[in-house]
Specification:
- The longest helix has 83 residues.
- The two termini are 58 Å apart.
- 0% of the residues are buried.
- The model has no long low-confidence stretch (mean pLDDT 78).
- By secondary structure, the protein is mainly α.
- Helix 2 packs antiparallel against helix 3.
- The protein has three helices and no strands.
- The radius of gyration is 42 Å and the shape is rod-shaped.
Length: 151
């Protein structure tokens, strides 16, 4: 123990209790013993904290790497599916034209002298016009899911 520390302790004990101690008093041996024990325990605790921090860092890094891998995989699948949907949407006008050609051919081949009813042609047009809307709706759902997974 440093002499300045000893003098401060002697003065503090004298002030608080009225008991006068010497610098060579056996009570200071106990104080020094207590300080040594406290330093040893503090050193052990600091080592355990450092070890735990390393383990936590390792776990956090592994978790972050796993998240990044899942996010990248999700983004890749989302991009591929978006391209598929875009290709399907691009084909829709062509398919509609093909259907129109087939329907015209069928109308020409139809031997039924009765004219087509307005309800059936309206229903057919209505069903055909729903495909782009359905594809856009599905694309919106997929985009929403991808964004929620990534975020």
């Amino acid at each position: 123990m440093k002499p300045a520390d000893t003098r401060a302790l002697v003065a503090s004990v004298l002030e608080k209790t009225g008991v006068r101690l010497d610098a060579d008093d056996p009570a200071f041996v106990l104080v020094e013993l207590n300080r040594i024990m406290l330093e040893n325990y503090a050193s052990e605790v600091a080592g355990k904290i450092e070890e735990a921090a390393k383990k936590l860092n390792t776990i956090a890094t592994a978790q972050a790497d796993g998240f990044v891998a899942v996010a990248n995989e999700t983004l890749t699948k989302f991009t591929a599916r978006s391209r598929e949907i875009q290709a399907m949407l691009a084909e829709l006008p062509e398919a509609r034209e093909e259907r129109g050609k087939c329907q015209n051919t069928r109308k020409q081949k139809n031997t039924d002298p009765r004219p087509a009813s307005p309800e059936s042609s309206q229903a057919q047009t209505s069903a055909t016009s729903r495909w782009p809307l359905a594809a856009a709706f599905l694309g919106g759902i997929i985009v929403g899911l991808a964004v929620s997974i990534i975020a």
